[in-house]
Structures are given as structure tokens and as C-alpha cells.
Amino acid sequence: MKRQENRIAFQGGAYSLAITAVVLAILVVINVLAGSLPSSLMKYDISSSKLYSITSNTKVVVNALDQDVNIYWIVQSGKEDSVLDNLLSKYASLSDHIQVIKKNPDVYPTFAKQYTDETVQNNSLVVECGDKNRFISYDDIYLQDSNPYSYTYNTSFDGEGAITSAIDYVVSDELPQMYVLEGHGETELPETFKDQLEKENVETHSFSLLNEDQIPEDADVIMIYGPTSDISVEEETMLASYVAGGGKLLVMAGPTKEGTLTNLYGLLNDYGVTASDGIIVEGDRTHYAFQTPYVLLPDIAQNDMTDSLIQANYFVIMPLAQGLTVSGYSPSGTVTSLLTTSESAFSKTAGYSLDTYEKEDGDADGPFSTAISIDAEMVDRSCGLALLCSWMILTMLILPEPMMIWP
To answer: What is the pLDDT of residue 138?
Structure first.
């Protein structure tokens, strides 16, 4: 019966695992890019104590303004959203460069058409600076997520996140550029991830190193997302040179159903990090979820990238992870383990063919890191490499919907 359950779980598609990396990936991308990324961060804040507050991220963006920004509030008289009204007044009070201007659609029926082709609801916004503008639909201010268990919708307020992101966008001359590698069976980025990157004002481009002589000069970060086959030796050399020259690399990969990602993980060798063969199985019941030892609940280390998860009392759920072993010393850079298994974990070298959760001869002892970041300091510049080794392609939890981040 257990063998049958394993086979069913392993035969699932990529969708259920696509959400696994979303929260961590956003945190890693934001921190890896460092100064390249905008300061705005998405905040789901519906508590009575924080609903009317302004975060430090917004203050950093607004206090740095040296250009005038107009926030057009498209709303009929007497139908103003009180929460949005309060929030907009705070933006106006933070900077003399921000002006909130009401535009009643009954008086100005065609005003919004110059900014969007969408149907404009009451309490929608337009943020404008010079020739740049961004339309914020009311649906982008109050977000709704369906709950399949209760057939209801959960509503979250993201007015600050939407407005601050729009302000940062309209005043920025250049936006951070992310290039997403193709050519190795990579999985398409999930829509939630794409939406978040857009909100963080990160522009994404797909590219292949198979028909390029060098990595694009404007690439602030290279992402490799769920490859099913290995990169070539030539690609490994190009990526290593990119990182050594100050580039940023974000990798979300792990055990594949066929073959190994030898060249991709070879990028870690200079940093004293090796990838174990097989799939991690947890021996400590407190470190795995859903009564399934390969669905990990790793320990979260305190770090700028993970502190928000710890403060919110979140667990990170990572199915089918590949173990990373950190030697403890690297002359090439500083390695930080972000997520780790218990000491009872071990790596099943049988991989997708495993038919028991018991440790067998040839299985590697843990503990393992399942997410790391690497920062290499050089003479006059720094480079960074981040690897999230938890995102497996062929995994499906037997649930009505994937739940990879569990509060």
C-alpha cells in the first residue's frame, strides 16, 4: 500500500509544487538583488491595529521622492472607501511631492480612459509622474482568494503595497531586469509568482544560453526555475563567470526523475557546497507534514530573507527536496543555510524509485540544508548566488489544493 501511495504522489504534475517556492523565492529574489530592487514589498494587512498604518518600506520610497507624483482617486462623491481615504491622506502627509486628486467619473466620464481599457470601479487609482503612470484597480486594493474548503473568499487589503509599488514604478528611470533561463525543460513560472514580480517592478525576460555568446549585460539576476535536465558545461562556465563578475543567480531545482543536474550543482563546488544524490526522507516526525516523510518541515534560520516567516509563525513545507551539504568553510564566499532538516534526516539514493521510508545501505546521513544563500566578497564588488534546493518538478500532494506554506 505504501509503495502505491509513493507512486501516486510521484506521478503528479508540477502545479501543486509550483507554490512551494513562491514565498521564499520572492524573499530570496528581493535580497539577492539588494540595491537593484525597489524597496516596496507586498503587505497583506487586514488587522485593525495595522490597517491604517504605513510601513517603513513605504516611508523609504516616499521620503526619497524628488519628483512630483499625482495620485488620482477615481470615485463618485459620497462613495469613498474610508480605509482608502485614510491611507491616501497618510501618503499626502508624508511628502510634499505627493498630491491626491479626486476625479469624479460623473463629472469626468472619460478621464480614466487615457490610462486603461479596463472597466474602472469606484475607488480605483491612477498614479502618475511625468510621462509614466500606473492604473490600480479596486480589485488590486482588496484582494480575494478562494477557499475551496469552505467555498468562501478570503479578502485581504493591499492598498499600501499597490500604491507604493506604483509610486516606485513611475519615478524609476530603470527597472531591475530578471532573465529566466530556458532550454532544459524548465517549468513555467506560476501566475502568483509572475504577479508578485510585476508588483515588485521586476521585468522578466526568457532567454537561452544555447544561442547566446554571453549573458545579457543588463541582467540584474538570472533565474533557473525547475529544470528537468542539466545545463551544459559551456553554460556552467558562462554562469560561473557571470556570478564571479558580480552577477546574481537564483536557482530553484532538485532531484529529477531521470538523470542528475551535475553541471548545475557544479556551480556550488567553489563554495564548499555539494548536492546529495536522491531525495531527503525525514526521520523526525516533527519535521515532516501530512504523515509523509519526504514532505519536509525544515527549520528556518533567522535571516533577513526568512525573518518575516518566523515572525508570522509560518512553516515552510517542502516536498521532494534534495539535500545540500555545507562544508563549513569556503575561501570563495560566505555560505548561509536558510532551511535545514533535523539530524535524523537521510537521503534516499533510490530517488523516485524508493519503496520504503527506512534507511538502507548507501543512503546518506543528514542533516542537510534545503535552502542556502552564498555571498562572495571581492576586491571592489560583491557577487551573490542563491540556491533554493526544494522545488521538485514531479510532485503532487493529495489535497484539494496545494498548501505549501502553512501558517
So the answer is: 92
Using one digit for the tens of pLDDT, what is the confidence trace for 54-104? 788 888 889 989 999 999 999 999 999 999 999 999 999 999 999 999 999
Give the pLDDT score at 346.
93
Q: In sequence order, what are the residues at sequence separation of 6 or more whose Cβ sits closer than 8 angstroms to the Cβ of residue 74?
A: 103, 105, 111, 112, 120, 122, 123, 124, 125, 126
Q: Can you give the pLDDT at residue 336?
A: 84
Number of H helices, E strands in the chain: 11, 23
Q: For the purposes of burial, counting CB atoms within 10 Å of the CB of 174, is it exposed (0-12), middle (13-18) or buried (19 or more)?
A: exposed
Closest CA to 249 of 53, 20, 33: 33
Output b/e per residue, 107-144; b: 16+ Cβ within 10 A. Answer: eeeeebeebbeeebeebbbbbbbeeebbbbbbebbbbe
pLDDT tens digits along 342-360 = 999 999 988 888 888 899 9
Residue with cell 502545479: 15
Cα–Cα distance measured from residue 358 to residue 330, given in angstroms and rounded to the nearest whole number = 33
CA angle at 274 for the pair 273 and 279, rounded to the nearest 5°: 130
Identify any residues that bridge with 178 across adjacent strands, giving them in sequence order: 204, 221
Grid coordinates of 91: 501618503
d(CA 277, CA 279) in angstroms, rounded, equals 7
Strands of the sheet containing 346-348, edge to edge, are 279-281, 346-348, 364-365
Length of the chain: 407
Give which of 399, 384, 293, 270 is closest to 341, Cα–Cα. Answer: 293
- CA–CA separation, 21 and 388 (whole Å): 8
Q: Which residues contact 388 (CB under 8 A, 6 or more apart)?
A: 21, 24, 25, 28, 250, 251, 252, 370, 371
Tens of pLDDT, residues 279-333 = 999 999 999 998 999 989 999 998 877 887 788 788 888 888 889 888 866 667 7
C-alpha cell, 42: 507586498
DSSP 218-277: T-SEEEEE--SSPPPHHHHHHHHHHHHTT-EEEEE----SSS--HHHHHTTGGGTEEEPS
